[in-house]
Amino acid sequence: MNQDLTAVALNCTLKPSPGDSSTDVISAQILNELSGHGISGQTIRVVDYDVRPGVEADMGHGDQWPGIAQHIRDADILVFATPTWVGHISSVAQRVLERLDAEISRTDDQGRPAMFGKVAVAAVVGNEDGAHKIIADTFQGLNDIGFTIPAQGATYWNHEAMNPKDYKDLTETPEAVRATISTLSANAAHLARHLKDHQYPGA
To answer: Which intervals hold domain NADPH-dependent FMN reductase-like (predicted)?
Structure first.
């Protein structure tokens, strides 16, 4: 059994560091749960970097996406975490998906797209609804790029409508969210280990 798997969480909050971020809280909870399965991880707050618009691997002019992309390539599990804004993923999260488009054309020595064999999970937080649609759209995009989605590979928290409250302000994690994070992490770890040992067939 592989014990040296790694994860990278992309926190797609709109708040630059060191601002408090609900997306950061749920990302950390997932990475902590993954650590219980022998998987080490790190979080990248994407808004802290100059990620240029576009769909190329490197848009030049100081574009810092290539460094982030390398962390994704080096990891076995991607945690894609976004807040909900007007019912959609954040603009930062949308840009991440657009930049990941360049990975479709990258292939290994057997002709497989570069993200084949990597697992992706999603986390969504917000004080408005929209999480189900966000997860559906996100998973469709990540799967197109080549990531594999585990069973029940997403978790979310939305506060009740018209009564704003942030996930980071909760005094304790709701049991439903805690249980979902536990299942998500266990399934992601299981799938990542399986794919590490049994990669998809070559082209």
So the answer is: 19-154
Average of per-residue pLDDT values in the chain: 95
User: How many angstroms separate the CA atoms of 120 and 155, rounded?
Assistant: 12
CB atoms within 10 A of CB 187: 18
Residues 74 and 27: their CA atoms lie apart, in Å, by 18
Q: Compute the distance between CA of residue 32 and CA of residue 67 in angstroms, rounded to an integer.
A: 24
Domain extents in the chain: 6-197
Count CB-CB contacts under 10 A for residue 176.
11
Q: Does domain 6-197 have CATH number 3.40.50.360?
A: yes
Calculate helix-pair angle for 22-35, 175-197, nearest 10 degrees. 50
Give the Cα separation of 158 and 124 in Å (integer). 8
Alpha helices in the chain (DSSP H): 22-35, 65-74, 91-100, 131-145, 175-197
82-105 pLDDT per residue, tens: 999 999 999 999 999 999 999 999
Per-residue model confidence as pLDDT tens digits over 181-190: 999 999 999 9
3-class state of residue 191 by DSSP: helix
Neighbours of 130 (CB within 10 A): 18
